[in-house]
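Regression test attached.
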Amino acid sequence: MIVIGVTVNGEGKTWEISPDEFLSETLQRQGYISVKTGCSGGSCGLCTVWIDDRPMLSCTTLSARMDGKKITTLEGLQKEAKEIADFLVDEGADQCGFCSPGFIMLALAIRRELKSLDDESVRAYFNGNLCRCSGYYGRLRALRRYVLNKPEHLPD
Amino acid sequence: MTIREYARPDSLGRAYELLMRDEGNEIVAGLTMLKTSDRSIATAIDLSDLGLDYVREEEGFLKLGAMLTLRPLERDERCREAFSGALARAVEHVGGIQLRSHITIGGTLALRSAYSELLTVMLAVGAEVALYRQGIAPLADFLEQPHGRDIITEVRLPLRAARCILEGLRNSYLEHPLLCIAAAGCGKDIAIAVGARPGRARLAKRAMAAWKAGHGAREAGTIASEEMDFGDDLQASAWYRRKICVSLVAKALGDAIL
């Protein structure tokens, strides 16, 4: 076993992990139930968390690599998540909800990273987030309305 | 995949020593392919602490560290501008942005991916691979060698090839290309690489020579289609790949001289 120190949602944690454990497994074991796993192979985006403020796939990240890192899950972004969730519900884009945590983590990341949020760049940004209900258009509408209603979220 | 021990060496020398100590020891990069394999790794050697995630422009080369991932590559201004944007275009269809934050340059090179547009572009622009023990080797030679016990430290892209045209055909946005062509250079001095045949990207040397000798783009495309081997997979047949190779090479050469 390996002992690592991480910061999760602003709180310092010490974890004992096995060398071949992946971050999604560790987070779920530690009670961060927003972290879902779908393909477990890096293709579906369900397990998206932020590592040092960058959206990454927790199913493909070795926990051992996380020593000293800052991890953010949806549990740590409740206020921001609710704002987006309201738009998703309004557009009927919540559907079964299983992929919503990964989608919202990426939706919150996009405003930091992209200078323009036209439909094409948004679609390209969300390529790696699959929805088994295939509710992509509702999500796009929700995201467009969210950005229009929250222009302060756009980067300078 | 199972890992018995995890090590994070603080020098390349130490990493190499660990690699050579046991045949079961492996360098781990983005883990995107290794994770779904059935490998049993004795010690996973993680190069994260060695500062190999850089982009540098020096000595006439664009140098990319082995631990650089595809996402920062496609966002880096120097990488976006080099080779008329071909590097960034070569990675934009690889999964989502999160996956591209995992896949490393070193891992892509080590795998010698049969579908990689990035390796095809790198081959066309005349890239070299730096290995810790064996030194610097042309990418064209590296791709033909079997996987050896060494550590890839960086890839060096000579900036003399200012322009690189990337052509490809795919069934849908996120699928591997059925075939991809990179043409780098100008005038009659153009390197043509053919990738995703499927198979490791290769230079179409006879087609390059024909183009240099004054043959037309279509003719060079036909020669490229004859000198390359193509394979069948779920996406396309070898026959179809050979057919579209003619048109894609011709189009790449036509665009390259514009």
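Expected vs. actual: identical. Residues 2-74 of chain A form a domain with the Ubiquitin-like (UB roll) fold (CATH 3.10.20.30).
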